[in-house]
Amino acid sequence: MASITEFLGNALGGLAINLxxxxxxxxxxxxxATLAFHxxxxxxxxxxxxxGIAAIRALLxxxxxxxxxxx
Length: 71
Known about the structure:
Layout: H1 2-29, H2 39-60
Helix pairs in contact: 1-2
């Protein structure tokens, strides 16, 4: 269950990043925010943004440290 929620969090974060970037680029280019809702760009943003968010989460998590004692 935790992996499903992490996947959905990554996908929604990627979608939000994509909408912001594509909307900004579309406004600069003069086509407005319609560029943000292109299906291929939406899918690409979910994939690239989701992978980016997953990588950041992996880098920021603490590793488990195991102490081995000798007898």
